[in-house]
Amino acid sequence: MGDSVKTFCRNCSALCAMEIEMDEGRMVRARPDGSVSPYGAYLCPKGLAAVDFHSGAEGRLMHSLARQPDGTFAPIANDAALDVIGEKLKALVAEHGPRSVAVYHGTGAYRCVLGGLMERAFVAALGTPNFFSTMTIDQSAKWVTLARLGTMASAKNALRDCDVALLAGGNPLVTHQGAPYAVAESGAPARAFEAARANGCKVILVDPRRTETARFADLLIQPLPGHDAAIFAAIAHILLRDGTYDRAFVEKWCKGLEDLRAAVAPFTPEMAATRADVPVEQIELAAKWLGEARRVTAGSGTGPSFSTHSNANDHMIEVVNALCGGYRREGDRVRNPGTLRTKPVYEMAVSPSRSFEREPKCVSEDTGQLLGEMPSVLLPAEIMADHPDRIRALIVLGGDPLMAVGDPAVAKPAFEHLDLLVSLDCRMNETAKLADHVIATSQPFERHEISVPGDALYPSPFAQYTRPVVEKPEGCMHDWEFFWALGQRMGVPLTFKFWSYGLNFADIPEGLDLSGPQKPDPEELCRFLAAGSAVPFDELLAHPEGVRPDMPEHFVQSAPAEGGKLELMPLDVAGEMAVIRDEQEEDARPYRLISRRILHAINGAYRHSRETKRRYPVNFAYMNPDDMARDGLREGDAVEIASEDGMVRTQVKAEDRLRPGVVSMTHMFGPLVSTDDPEADEGANVGQLCSLTRVLEPVNFMPRFSAIPVTVQPYGKN
């Protein structure tokens, strides 16, 4: 066995430090590196499988492809592909303007720092508002809440600092996704919950399933799916009824308290308990703990954002957090002020932007951007719109939007309608199968990378830079190189900047002018990103295991100027709550299907790894054993899951963690359109049970990916 190389994982925002064992220049296996990492020695199964993934476990593309006139694909040199793509885009922009071009940023691109920032530079230089990403799918309700309620610049209390922590519809022990929305730390999440519990923190979970995270719960509320807004309105009702909300915080930083009081008045704990089919005592106890606590944090995972009334769900969860003053205050310690970008933290409210009410807006619906992005589920409508500014070309970086948006009967014809579809990925996903060009991209261990995505998310200051562990195959291309070369061919000069959410690209003063013909040096791009770092870039170079800087303690400061106010109950949210108050049960179907995450895959990635295929040969329909017994179903039976909008077939599996009346399946699993053979399909796409034209949310036009009314029956039975 040869040497080992220090680097870090790039599957999620935890960016766990790792070592790669080498043998004659070949990667053999990955193992956690706890020598410096603030998480200690930790890697989840996806990190442990990263070498297999890199080595072709999912059919890695070794060269780029071009669609032929007969619909097949043939290899193409990257320069030739760029020439064709550049000419096509130039012609479209000349005839139809920059709005004819759109970019979609997928899960696989979020930890590709240079690629993602070069993509942003390309979009800004081109001047198109059509930027889409996975964030406006599984997180868009949270962004709607940010736009309608506002936020505190000081951010929420950290889990380890709290007396009570409430998490709705999230399972961080599986997802490894934490701040700013969920209540968790991204890396080694179980250790963070253990530390919080050791400090006396009470943990409340609200989830139809007794998740892996629930082993840390002091109170587990298992509601019928689709009633989060009612439950949290009832908690707000109790806090206001009993006067246990944080009066000082609300008076200083919030407005609309009486509007909130009126909106939640009908949502008594008894009413919410009846709707959600949970003991009323649990709702009362959750509100009691929250009201009595000195320091609170409340947040949510994907569940409420995927479910019925998703925008109202997340709004009411954040309202409960605001009523409890669940934010860092002046004088509170800031555990991690950032290393690459250290910034002061102020106690200050940022008023709601309501950015979706302003131009630029979509051409298919009267709605605009959320944090600078258009709603991704409107992509098909934006392509098919009878409008001169409709989308005609789409570049997809590290994602599978055709699969992600659901309702393939609507989405697929739209993607086929594009004049140009380009997929940048390491494998042929469902979007790539429709593409005109598939650019075979490099993989993480072949890239220069710096820990920008985790900079403010680590539990303590830490930064890491990695050079490539191995060289990329000759036929593959770096993501950043694609966008730079495309800008060159189109005559669109790029400026490389340190961008992050909430920043207007044009307003960022520092940038690297990349208009010249010389291809950028990726290490110099990373050096630029570390220009303001608390750890000099040369020190990061000298310490590939990462650096934990010795920084002075940081504390939340008083606001340098008068801040805004959080809008507890704007008129449109009050209207949505009135609809929820008056609604009747919409569908007699006996079950509600919810989405679940699995530890061994992340969205579309790792679905075909050896361990995932062994554990999940199909996309199992998990059911409560009592429900199965009542319906005459046995473990492994073939079943048909049907909603008002579609049907899939799979195998049923018993899980006593689920409450009765619920079926649980994984999003983005199986082929785009399933057949009658789930084993041959290696899954089933629950997106077929969704609709992009019916039961959509306001503002973001999200379909229902969870709490879907369904029937379950064996094959061949009525």
UniProtKB/TrEMBL annotation:
Keywords, comma-separated and alphabetical:
Iron, Iron-sulfur, Metal-binding
Q: Which residues form the 4Fe-4S Mo/W bis-MGD-type domain?
A: 2-56
* Superkingdom of source: Bacteria
Query: What Pfam families does the entry give?
Result: Molybdop_Fe4S4, Molybdopterin, Molydop_binding
Note the PANTHER family from the entry.
OXIDOREDUCTASE YYAE-RELATED, TRIMETHYLAMINE-N-OXIDE REDUCTASE
- In which family does this protein belong, per the annotation? Belongs to the prokaryotic molybdopterin-containing oxidoreductase family.
Name it.
Molybdopterin-binding oxidoreductase
Q: Give the organism, scientific name.
A: Novosphingobium indicum
